[in-house]
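SEVERITY: medium
COMPONENT: batch folding queue
REPORTER: lab tech (J.R.)

DESCRIPTION
The queue accepted two submissions in a row. Attaching both inputs and their returned structure tokens so the on-call engineer can compare them side by side.

ATTACHMENT 1
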Amino acid sequence: MDPWSCQTHVTDFDKKITKFEDDFIPLINNDKLPDHEAYLAILESKLRKIKSDPNVLRQLAAKKEGFMLQLLNEEHSYSVEQSHLDEPIPNSQILRTLLPQKQALNQGEVVELIKYDQLSSEADDIDNTEPVSESK
């Protein structure tokens, strides 16, 4: 009894194999698949349904307007220039020897990447709020 339940196949080793099972040659001479016409018809019908639905058009227009307003109202502050980032930082040889992982080599390594920390601002808000005392 075979423990892996494999059936043994008798192979003819005398037969020479001169090619692959799949020669990797496309059967169709052009770049289109055989069912491309049906696929395009389905896509065009879906597009017609989307274009005729007023809700979808309204949602797309609202989304576009929202993105435009966001772009216009967004404040851009680019205070750090690219050339400024490559300037070397003078630092102590002793600190560089003792704590090389803590020493920045150029200005680009000390630029504050994230200026807004949600958790710290929430903690500050909680600390700043005073309990309301009721007087009678």
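ATTACHMENT 2
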Amino acid sequence: MSRYAASKMQKSASAAASGLSPRAKRMVLAGATALVVMTGTMWGAGLKMNQEAKQELQRQHVISIDEKIHSLEVAREGLVGKRNALETQIRELEKRQEERKRTRANEGREG
């Protein structure tokens, strides 16, 4: 771009800026500032999340085999307990269904 074209663009930009009222200039400046702050905040949050994810991966690599086995056994115990509770509920439900069938059959014979 020639110096003349750059100079002309600069003059037109400053003319447009000077054509704004002081209130409009403040609003543009406030909006631009808010945008910069928001962008920086989002970027910083993204960097922090990446850093925490890396630290978590490193921590998981450091955990010994025994600790992993222990945590898996604890999780298994919880799952087995849930399975037993569900099996008990299923058995109780089946018993109630059988009782209902018997009472309906008895009512049918009596009626």
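NOTES FROM REPORTER
The longest helix spans residues 65-110.
No errors were logged for either attachment.
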